[in-house]
Amino acid sequence: MFVVVMAALLYAVIRYRRRLGDDIPEQIHGNTRLEIAWSIAPALILIAVAIPTVITIFDNANSPLPPEKGGLEVEVIAHQWWFEFRYPEANVVTANELHIPVGEVVNLKLDSVDVIHSFWIPKLAGKVDMIPNSQNTMWIQADQPGDYYGQCAEFCGESHANMKFRVVAEPLEDFDNWLQAQSVDAVEPVEPLAKQGHDLFISREASCFACHTISGSRRAQGQVGPNLTHFASRQHFAGSILENTQDNLRKWLQDPQSVKPGNLMARDATIYTDPNLTLTEPEISALIAYLQSLK
Ligand code: CUA
Predict the structure, then answer these.
(1) What is the mean pLDDT of residues 217-241?
(2) Burial class of residue 85 in the structure, from the number of CB atoms within 10 Å of its CB (0-12 exposed, 13-18 middle, 19+ buried)
(3) Of 70, 110, 76, 119, which Cα lies nearest the Cα of 94?
(4) Which atom of ligand 1 lies nearest, measured to the CA of 115?
(5) For 24, which DSSP code?
(6) What is the C-alpha to C-alpha distance for residues 112 and 99, in angstroms, rounded to an integer?
(7) From the CA of 119, how far away is ligand 1's center (Å)?
């Protein structure tokens, strides 16, 4: 479009430029027939585009409103900048990975704790806004097993582009096993390094517990960051931008801001004075051992 318009413009400028000895050209202001034509033609084009667009938008939103009642229900809560998934019936809270059974309707309740985000799994459904204090709903169904990529689709601050998630669609039996495993409390580790990490996790020193919940731990009940009860069972972390490996965990704990700028991984996220965790290498190794024990 740009090239065609610019080429036509350049041609007209050069071909019809003012030459020596030219008189003032004929004045043709107010050509009624031309003006009617260039008003009606674009209007017709816009109407032709609008009709199928509007029909599709309504189809996406309403057709048919949850096809079955009583399907699985998941609460999706947006945070700057990660997604939380709650399965209220199973008392499971997780992050970054939305597990669903294949071939079944899943009803989603969408909410946000801070700003407006947008929930989008391009291969499964259209975008729906996630608005603080106003619950939106949608439903999805994956007909093929596998991982489906998801992304926040509404600019929501510094790390909007790093706010991703994955839908893991699996056969019903696998899903039930997963849900069952997620509903169990975490076990305190016995392996010495992991035990050291656990103690650090709930210490005032590192105060990870102030923001993160570990089910089964009396102390770690923080609600600011992701629930880490079964952290090691997830394939990705940090807004689903990093694979859950030892190297990536080290990178994240050394300098979270370099991975996801603006995130709240600080010694004290509530006052947010020091955006660095200032953990020592041995402390990081112990925390990694602990996190990897949370199967
Ligand atoms: Cu959340 Cu963009």
Answers:
(1) 91
(2) buried
(3) 76
(4) 1
(5) P
(6) 20
(7) 8
Exposure string for 133-158, b = 16+ CB within 10 A, e = fewer:
eeebebbbbbeeeeebebbbbbebee
CA of 136 relative to ligand 1 center, distance in Å: 16
User: Ligand 1: distance of its center to the CA of 224 in Å?
Assistant: 17
pLDDT in tens, 121-167: 999 988 999 999 998 888 899 999 999 999 999 999 999 999 999 99
For the CA of 117, the nearest atom of ligand 1? 1
Crossing angle for the helix pair 281-293 and 246-254, to the nearest 10 degrees: 130
- For residue 165, report the distance from its CA to the centre of ligand 1, in Å: 11
CA angle 201, 206, 209 (to 5 degrees): 45
- pLDDT of the residue at 270: 52
Please list the residues that pair with 106 across neighbouring strands: 72, 140
Would you say residue 76 has pLDDT above 90? yes
